[in-house]
Amino acid sequence: MGKKIIIIGAGISGLTAGIYARLAGFDAEIYEAHRQAGGNCTGWTRGQYHIDGCIEWVTGSRENSSLHDIWTTTGALTDNTEVYLPEEIVSTIHEGNLYHLHAQIDRMQETFMQLSPEDAPVIKKLIKYIRQKQHIKVPVKKPFDRPDLWELAKLGFHMLKAGMPDRKTSRLSVGEFIAQFKSPVIRRLLSCTIHPDMPSYALFFSLGTRTSGDGGWVQGGSQAFAGRIRQRFEALGGILHLNSEVNEIIIKNGVATGIKRAGDPAEIPADYILPAIDAHTLLYRLLGGRYKSAYFEKRFNHPDKYIISAVTHIALGVHADLSGYPHHLCIEPPQPFVLNGTNITQLNVKTYNHDPAFTTGGRSLITVLLRDTHFDYWKALKERSDEAYRREKERLGAWVIRHLSTVFPPLEDRLEMIDIATPLTFHRYCHTYKGAYMSFLPGARVRQEFHCGRIKGIKNLYLAGQWVAPTGGLPMAAATGKFAVQRICRKERIS
Description:
It is a single chain. The protein folds into 3 domains: 191 residues, FAD/NAD(P)-binding domain, CATH 3.50.50; 108 residues, no CATH class; 125 residues, no CATH class. The strands form 7 sheets. The protein has a 7-stranded mixed β-sheet with strand order 7-6-16-19-20-15-21, sandwiched between helices. The chain has a 4-stranded parallel β-sheet with strand order 9-2-1-13, with helices on one face. A hairpin with a 2-residue loop joins strand 10 and strand 11. The chain is α+β, with helices and mostly antiparallel strands.
């Protein structure tokens, strides 16, 4: 028998770590609190509708991208996996006309120039910076704290060859860069692609990914995506324990030696412990607050600089064929919704007619994502009473349906299902800090940092998960699972 790694959490990061652990010759067991694997990469069924709770587009779906190897190694992408690449990234309606942000960059430029000639200088700047980011490959062969020097050299050369944004632009937030456009249509299309408080380069990188032919929608959705990774882990001999919540990591003489499960006083020993979970849960519940991390404390204590990426997710099931509608539509209702004193002014709407996994019998699924940082408000409502929590969700749902019905008329009389998941829902099912579905997003003038994957004062504990990487998301979650195992291999002198 090889040395044993216990992995806490069967999200994408934990499953990926388990696969790389087995490939390296370790015994690997994953303990997951939930009844199914996948973590935030999940979906759920309501009647005739399957709701996708995660995947919008996957970086690494293109074959020659740097992340593609991780997805094929884990089984997330196979030769039989279909990837949908729509011609439009997002669409919007303005004064009765439909406009698109095209995925083909020359067409994007042409459309924008025709739409708003007075914006020509900033349009040219946008296109230039997107092109710079189109073929940059994220170096994921080795951990970021010990990267492949040859890969870094190639990345540096490529970035120098492509050019960099000017100093003024590089210091702007996404919202500040977008505000330079005079056209309200262009502003709205770009604002729907990424959080406005992030650095401007995040916009260029995101659109560079999409316009390069990467970032496709993986058919079958999140649950099927995670299911293939689970199957790969178990096929390699990994052991998965579901409904097995870990409530303590055993530390003896500064060494992580095992875990305890909720309701079970017995210690489960291992040579290495690999938490692939929410950082707040790790530090304050599993480690009892006894160990500090300056990296995470800075993020917990400065939400103005490190953005909580939480949403309220609304799903609508309609007994109608909506295949003629855009797959991603950005709408600004004439009246905002006031949630806890904050105006919600934008609806990110997606239809799922491109994928038969989500509906049957001529039905259509619509999802609406609302940026929502009001976890404490939802939590207080729930604690006051289930009725107060339900009423506020119903009020929000009614507002969404009222405004969407002007764009999707079948909603008025053919709506069959409504499902609303708040940040409190995501916290309850995935144990994530403030209900966030991604890691902390860095603000515009915040230096990007990567966590070292260790907690000071504890040996044989190696962290994985999107919380140890800025921005997070599925690709970074998978990469950090691989990195954590590589760190263990380095200690064991396994090549």
